[in-house]
Protein 1
Amino acid sequence: MSKTIQEINEKIKQGRAVVCTAEEIIQVVKKKGLKQAAATVDVVTTGTFAPMCSSGAYFNVGHAIPRIKLGGGKVTLNEVPAYAGFAAVDILMGATAIPDDDPRNKVFPGKFAYGGGHVIEDLVAGKDVRLTAATYGTDCYPRKTLDTWIRLADMNEAVLFNMRNAYQNYNVAVNLSNRVIYTYMGILQPRMRNANYCTAGQLSPLLNDPYYRTIGVGTRIFLGGGQGFVVSHGTQHNPGVRRSALGLPQVPAGTLAVTGDLKTMSQQWLRGASFTGYGVTLTLGLGLPIPILDEETLAFTAVTDADITAPVVDYSEAYPNGKPEILGEVTVAQLKTGEITINGKKVITAGLSSYARAREVALILKSWIEAGTFLLTEPVAPLPAFDSGYRFKPLKERPWEVLREVI
Amino acid sequence: MAKKKVVFKFPPHLIDQPIIYRLVAENGLKVNILRARITPKEWGNMVVELNGDKAKVEAGLRFLADLGVEVEQLAEEVRWREERCIHCTACLTSCPPRALYVDRATMLVGFDREKCIACELCLNVCPYRAVEIAAAP
């Protein structure tokens, strides 16, 4: 038996749709079996709440009088540089941007107390943010400087635009060296004294639809507490990696580019984060609804933490040098007990992705669908698939001196 | 029974003496050493939790004062700001006494103040600065 998204939407509008979270569906399938569960359940909701560095937001701040051309000038929000290489008053704030006078890692390890992720959080929280600009004057845009308070409500457009979110599976980070290392996977103690992981596991959006059968361009999603959309596959999308018998990628694989109106989002689901010795980022809540079109889509959503394996990677040597070797594989279920065994050694684990909040995202999305305030969308175009040949390549470095000789 | 967290500061000339042994054996106190830094020829520093009835704790502290050990109240403590915590569990492996813990069923993080030894290892680990050091009440 199969359903269409249109049929599911009709049921949502009538308040008759049966919705489960990706966690609840595991028990439903156990109790009812695949066939009956697929006939009963219409939508499975997923969720994740984790640091996502390739996030950012663009703003149209409105025209000052007299007019000023921010495009081509230097712009900051709370002293954090914004990118202004656009038309007169459009600017872009990246999650990892930091103030020019931040000491960075000069006194190691740096604190990275405030940056782009925090600016976005402050704006969403309704706080006043200081906007400064220094630029050149033109006949039509005579003004050269600006220093003003601004808040989200007073801007024209404020849009979260993330080129890579929701990584499908992620590394478990350890440190084999003899010194403490400070990474985007947290502080890693020497000689593998801890292991940090970052996945929502059985609740993770792309692990519940591993072949992107229902997700595509235009899919409506939960984003930062509001409603957003999938733009396309994200940067570094790498669908062709090795997969388990269940179709689950065993290393980081697919990604999503997403967007949404920042004015509909809330601080609860958008948080600036400071990684000691590494930098600043944005921690973001994201959830995808998966329409249960047939037994196969349902079977994928019944994935459990015990089914998902993640590669253990040494962040002192293999990761920084781009070496593909892994120390082993562990399941998310093992990671969530607080202890794993790697090469015979017991290692304590900690997460960077909040499972408690991921569960909440999936529950909120479920409540929206049940209330009829969130309708599902037909993808406008698919994401590059497992067998598309699309892959993630390293940088091919060609030192410029060589290039000059050729010329 | 009284439980008290205090800081002992040992002057250099006392470093080679078994003072904690005497505090236990002669004063009948339970002494839980939370943190200690003892180096020859330098002032020693020790954070302890004293456990015993009130009279014994007071007598023990007098015994130390008579020897020349300075006793200070724990000036700072770690606070967990629940509203900032996103329950990611990043802090768990940086908390030796397991004062920061997670309920594995709900995956919600909690903080048991009684277990905290104020080692401050968690401070740099939390990306949301949900743990902070503050003056003890």
Protein 2
Amino acid sequence: MNKAIWAAALVAALPWNTAAATEPGVDSLRAELAALKADYETRIRALEARLARQDALLRAEGAAAPPGQTQRSAGAATTTASARGNAFNPQISLILDGRMASFDRDPEGYHLPGFMLGGEAGLFEEGMSIGHTELSVSANIDHLFFGQFTVAMAEHDGETETEVEEAFFETLGLGEGFTLRGGRFFSAVGYLNQQHEHAWDFADAPLVYAGLWGNKYLDDGVRLSWVAPTRLLLELGAEVFAGAKFPAGGARDSGIGSRVLFANLGGDWGASHSWQTGMSHYAADVEGRSAGAHEHGVGGEEETPTFTGDSEAWGAHLIYKWAPQGNYRQRNFKLQAEYFAVEEDGDLILAGSEPLEFSSFDGDQEGFYLQGVYQFRPQWRVGLRYDRLWSDNEGSDPEVLEEAGLLAEGDDPERWSAMFEWLPSEFSRLRLQYNRDDSYRSGDHQWFLQYTHSLGAHGAHRF
Amino acid sequence: MMHVQRKGLWPKWLVAALALFTVPAAAELRVFACEPEWAALSAALGGDRVSVDMATTAAQDPHYVQARPGLIALARSADLLVCTGADLETGWLPLLLRKSGNPVIQTARSGYFLAAEQVSLLEVPERLDRALGDIHAAGNPHLALDPRRLLVVAERLAERLAAIDPEGAVAYRAHLAGFRNRWQAAIVGWEMRAAPLRGRRVAAHHPTFTYLEDWLGLERVAMLEPKPGIPPSSAHLARLLKKFRAEPVDLILHASYEDARPAGWLAGKIGVPVLRLPASPEGPPDGVETLEFWMESLVTALLQTAGLGAR
């Protein structure tokens, strides 16, 4: 900078000196000075005008913005960002998911002793396969409603299956803390149940979700929830569903097959700690819920255990999160535990058997998982999970229960999982996971290498 | 709503337990401010007519906040939401709005105020592609770091407060007038002091201080993040090292919530000072003093670190 000043001074001085040498008159000096002054004044005026323009730009009351920026108006609310937000309206996001899986045992023979594997429960395909490809579209419908549609595409036994996972509307601030949701959605019966599969911290569902909810419980229905006007979060809600999906299976009672009640309580503990705990209750009148079809004997007749009766479940969860001073970017830790207990009372038949085999069924199943995930650098996470299930199912004909896989006989499933993740950005993830699965008598070593990428709209940072 | 005091009707422990839950029954306007600067500004303009809750602190990267239970509870009872916008809170604010069940703070309602919608923004991307990093379609959201823009936001916010709470309109305008006088004088003072900073070359971790650089005439020559939102890689840092050896920089900046190690490493290699700056005011949001102290400390820290002393 100094050099520049010196150079300028020199340049300025040169003609001056020549002038001074040839014409010693004071008038010319004055003229030079006046010219300089005039020059500076015009420059200052130009600068002032520029400043004024910039000031006007900043204020820009109704004025046109510079190129590339949108016009602002004095009526604040309907302006720049909301107009730009239209570029993403509706918000569209696509999840790409795929994995390489390796098992010691044959995944075809997978079962959970004492539990029915319904819904999507079960192991991945061995080798390379794509998982759920999920397409989601959401937007505010108008000033009253929000809507979301999610379709998942997956391949099962060589056939591409399309499942509508979500298709719901939700009120935007009904008032007094109430929210009404209707359509197809994930039930609030559990904490993990409301998260999409791609948001899970492990590649597979916890055993208690696999054994009791067929990985996740979603159905067509209505939810009303209420947030109390309190400092701590107190949320109460009720859901009624058609009861057409596992584990309710088969609508009864003029279309209302299952009911869920839930209560959540949560808050902060200083700047670094946050927590949430909750309880839920689920009840269903099950009619003809079938799951876990298996080939029977050499003849290859397929028998499908089918349950009809009352089903009731209690759930509880506890979530604790830590981040130094609440800054989740660098490091954070999450501890998550959920417990479910299911009691069922009814009849069990083996559909397809001849003569028809049946038994009364008095089911008593429970389980929990506990997991911790630590993000030790912005792009790296490690996690550990423990799963445990118990069952005490009884029936008039234990042989039928045994054929249905509902007698555990001391083989209560248990599993340890460890995972390691690399997240290059908020939109991509690579995960390596190992499971030591003692779900049945001889344990299985399972390895998964999984990618989960998200295209389009920015995902939500759920608690 | 739960201030039941009659003896015998409720057991004492129950009253005590309920007190834990209830928000103090307030005649004031409840402001939910996403970042500390807007909390301080709301307090400055609202005075004792408002009570202000702050969703984040200066220690937290506002982009990575989660829609945690405590925030849902606060949003549920808020009368006015004052946030940055421009997608800074895109990961958590839409979720909070939906979960709050609160009609008045929903998008484009009277209780929904975004600072980014009040002023023009810098660094508006011409191309929207995630290959460019986690870019903000509307432009750089850290606009409060330009006190001139902050003043425009203050004017709009005072108007909004007056619209929501007409009874307090006179008070809000008076507070704004006081704020404007003080703030404009302060801006002149800061600009005079910071004049020697003009033209200084800085490198920054993330485009957090774009508006500060723009205001004070600092020249940002590089970012430590290879793309916005992508943590600095060793390859990128090595490239920067080579670049800075050829074309020196005067300072390396990073926000207090950003990783200090990349900036520290680079600064150590090329022997320039590294400066950790609060991207939002620290401490409780007490009004104009909080904002003044924040700006003051930014200018002073820049001058001191650039070896220009604080006068």
